[in-house]
């Protein structure tokens, strides 16, 4: 910027490091920033910050819908850790999140690598096809899979019949409902990691591959030495975001099994919903939710660390 | 890419076909059912690919007189459009402030915005429901619109701030400032007109996210008059009265088609930008 005439004594001293700008100086200089951010801040306060704080305070009371509730200390947390269903749901949620996140990551990477080998036009259309589940409503995903796996009229039972076998009850018996939920959730969201990976792969300069090939690296070595190092940050980003979103996932499992049969496939998100809006016990529901918050916030901390590494690329 | 041979090509196509089948076959089963009569849909004699003569669009015409789907889809459109407009009104200046302006507290605010993206929404519905209950917004279309606007806001900020950061060169604003604009008018007269493609893309995704949303509408409404199509399908599924699978699947096709088709068409233009779409 051109040197301005008539600078004040303070500005000159500051330029040579003799003075530091104080907070009030920065406030005065940057007031437009606040004009821009105020609407967002108001919205966030009304529907994020206040409810979050209100919810945490709620866990120390016996609040129900429409009743303010009394302070009862840690009783809700005590109820929580001694509640068998919660402990069960907590364990199954972790298994569900680990399974779906892992599968989404692997399938997404595979999809991105395969798509990268196609020509541009084919990449566009086949990419849109392969990514399409991600854009269906999660609730619709649940209904689609429920129909797909239906015992009497579904595709799977028909396919089993072709081989003369009886299809297992995918949504009720044995280990099947767990597998069905994980596979259905993977189907809906693997495209997310495919999209992020595809962007990362596309940003690798072609020359690096050519150089590696010239020095005699085969396909596998090129992947290991050129592609893989570039995928580290995207992997952390995908892992943490998908972990948080898989924990939060409600609609699709709710439509597919709804936690059933009975409470067999009860996830924390469905349990939170049930306690809050079926039993109307808001305080306890938020206490259940605190377990989810704890899990997703761990993921969020990792995510923030990862994006501050390479802020401009993925933010 | 380099030194291709036939075997790796074949492997590539096998992989692509496997992915395409995994993605599409569940959809196909829904579409197949939606084009059959109710009897044919559950008959074991109907093949994987039904005979051409068995196909009918009967279920698509039945949707409209069987349920209040006109109301449901109208509600879906109303709340999605309103949520898009409101959230953009908040998100455009917010995203610009995050991307370009420097003010004390920017980082802290930005990272709390990141946390909100990753916060489990189902937990947040509880205190928000309480607030809406006291404000008498439960079971109203206004309440749904407010909730959805806030729900799509972090995603909008995310998309737009990425664009402002990378898509608009900084010297454009510097030139505007030298020309005598202040930051506010530089933004309104120079930056905003340059940003309409990004704003359009953000609007599209905001619309689709609101359209797809189930949780908020489900929690905040019980009456049929304010129900959106997504929630309506859940209720129809749960009611024992209906076992007309073809009609249900036809309505599911109508629900799923707009987002999937919009995305397929706009993919080329917006591609990787949608990093922050909460599932």
- Percent strand of chain A equals under 5%
Q: How many domains make up the coordinates of chain A?
A: 1
CATH class category of the domain at 67-239 in chain B: Mainly Alpha
Order of helix and strand elements from N to C terminus of chain B = HHHHHHHHHHHHH
The helix/strand series of chain A, from N terminus to C terminus, equals HHHHHHHHHHHHHHHH
Q: What would the average pLDDT of chain A be, to the nearest integer?
A: 85
Oligomer: heterodimer
Counting DSSP E segments of at least 2 residues, the number of strands of chain A comes to 0
Distance between the termini of chain A: 28 Å
Transmembrane segments (chain B): 12-30, 77-96, 108-126, 132-153, 190-211, 245-265
Keywords (chain B): Cell membrane, Membrane, Transmembrane, Transmembrane helix, Transport
Pfam family, one (chain B): BPD_transp_1
Subcellular location (chain B): Cell membrane
Compile the SSE list and pairings.
The complex is a heterodimer of chains A (315) and B (279).
Chain A: H1 9-15, H2 23-29, H3 31-58, H4 75-81, H5 84-116, H6 120-131, H7 138-148, H8 155-162, H9 176-202, H10 206-214, H11 219-230, H12 232-248, H13 251-256, H14 268-278, H15 282-309, H16 311-314
Helix pairs in contact in A: 4-15, 5-9, 5-12, 7-9, 9-12, 10-11, 12-15, 14-15
Chain B: H1 6-34, H2 38-42, H3 58-66, H4 69-99, H5 106-118, H6 121-134, H7 141-167, H8 170-178, H9 183-194, H10 196-212, H11 215-220, H12 229-238, H13 245-270
Helix pairs in contact in B: 1-13, 3-13, 4-7, 4-10, 7-10, 8-9, 10-13, 12-13
